[in-house]
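Handout, tutorial session.
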Amino acid sequence: MLSPTPLSLLCALILCMPLAVIVTITSPTTSTTTTVHDGPETNPVPDFVPATKTHQRLSFKPPPLPPEDDKSLFRVASRVNSRTHPGSPKKIAFLFLTVSPLPFAPLWELYFNQIPKSLFNVYVHADPTHPYETPFSGLFAHRVIHSKPALRFTPTLISAVRRLLARALLHDRSNYMFVLISASCIPIHSFNFTYHTLIGSKKSFIEILDNEIGTFDRWAARGADLMLPEVKLDDFRIGSQFWSLTRKHARLIVGDEIIWAKFNLPCVVWDNCYPEENYFPSLVHMRDPSGVVPATLTHVDWNGSSDGHPRMYVASEVGAELITKLRLDKPRYGDDGTKCSDSSVICRRDPFLFARKLASDSIQRLMSIASEVIFSD
């Protein structure tokens, strides 16, 4: 056999170089797959998916997930910037508090249809102890925050709302107004009408009522004088749980520890215990009474109430006439820190933007009048 000469070896090397280049370019790179855990397997709803920020470099570090223990979550959220993001439009944070799949999800989908995502955010607190045979989808997919049981007659309802506020504060600095929504609640105006009404206000809308029947019984429901000295009877207020709060008051609520410690005590007289209807109005009244319009913009009819629940509108009642009636009603204005002597309160006529309670089987009737009635301002 002939031995290869240096010249033949050089020629062979030159001929093989293009093949080596091709192999190098087309070889797959090694990739790493990261498993994302949605939380405990016992949780029937998916966790909230936080927004990520993309930096100029190819690699980026996603923001840390909010802590799941309430104490740490509220502490971190109370320290966020008090102002909305400069240069960005202010957003409304819609906070859905539910123990079931949202029966009016199709109506809300239509409500937000074609609305720029730069104007709103959606967050859902779903009690994990309840069955969710129909998963949250569409607009509500991946909007469920880390949730815990929320039971009537207990402060767990307050905790659930504080979690919603904290997650919304941490998630988007552009959130300016925070609106609490129940599963039985519907909009009675278009999104644009609601947006301009809320974003144009420098004050929160929260019902704050003084000298209501049963005030003392509610105040003493945890035991005689147990609310003292932090919450005197003169400072104790009653109001609707469903409100629209500014960023300032959202931070106030998640950062509160002193007043919350009193309302977090268990009631010994459970049928006088409605902490979610007392904590928020009492706290805001004590800390910033002049910073609110003392009324809720969520319509509710307490005539014919039963077992502490307001009247439920059945499907046969739902129509254009009902929506018109709800819109024409005037909110009840309570204590604004001046004992209602301020003419700006007396002369106000703020519009109701939402309404509750409606039976879940009224969704078809609502959808049939949505475009021509509900969203027609």
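The second record follows below. Compare its token runs with those of the first.
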Amino acid sequence: MSIPFPTAFHHMPTPAFVAEVSSGDIVAANASLEHLYLNVGAARQNTWSSLVNDASSQLSEIVTKVQRGEVERISARLEVGDRTLSAEISIIELDDQHILGYISHTEHLDFSVAENTLLKFALTESSAGIWMWEIEGDTISCSQSIASLLGCSLEETPHSAEGWHDRVHKDDLPKMMRTIQEHIKHKQRYYEAEYRIRRGNDEYIWVRERGRTYSQDASGNVAKIIGFIEDISPQKALEEHLRSQATFDELTGLLNRGAALTHFTKQLGLARRQYTPLTMAKIDLDARGLLADMPLEQRNTAIHTSARFIYKKIREADILARVAQDKLLLLLPNTSLKDAQKLINSFLKPSQEELKVLEFSDASHLNLCVGLATFPEDGETIEELAQSANSAVEKGRTSGVAISIAE
């Protein structure tokens, strides 16, 4: 066949060849491939199977896989004289009968060279590092960026899958390994995983790993994977903050209204199914109007102190939420009205140490008023119980009592 652009093919810096698909014969080789063998005084291979050092490898089968998109490049061990080189062969169809193959030698891949290109800028700006994993020999090569990300020297970076896994947080390791195993098993092109990895100072950071099949063997099995990891700790911290905001009140740290409704509904369902008592308490932190004229910061400090004071008094199964600026809602599962009154009375009798804290923060247990409602007498839904408890607390404020019971 006539080779398109013969001069360009001949002077390609990358070793390249043209092969006949059906026979596997190498019908042309460029100067770089010829020199690869001449430099060690060896004869160049003349067939595909001898080139890749695999008598069972059929070029026609591999081309079919390339056409289907199952294979992009082949990992091979080239025998060059008395040396065996780890290399990748990329295949491009020239016509129905011939392919162009070009060889990249990755046995001693120097990531520092790659990072001295635009890739270095991309990696640096995204706090990312590049790595390559040769599966058969279980050899991992890392870039200097990974060493920097892990806070260690290049020699201390992981050099095997086991070494890498030793750094992954034990809670994240099973999912991370499962993702990679599925990638290899199903011969996928890409995968992505997020996990925590230990740095040189024994602190963990969150990273996102993106891996890509770099080369495959003649059967289409994944042979080498190349990928990046990048530090996503700031992003994870933001996500956690947003989740927390969606569940907890920022000032007091208690559940907010939306989260409380979910928990309250669940407990009400249990009380209904198990025929157990349940009491709801509406707590007004400013029944005497002592907070209304305070500056905002001083008022917030008093609300925070009062809320935390009450939180420390309740039991583990009780649920406390902030539902308005100076209003709390307390659900007491498996608690009768009589037992609820005993618990509420503990709020109104602080110890000397608790009293000092309250007074220092301009909070007062004497400023509290609590309205109580029970299920099912005062309501069969959360909304009905809350309305009854609210009516009770309003009655208590008007009459000047600390504990008021729904009628």
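Points raised in discussion: The longest helix spans residues 257-274.
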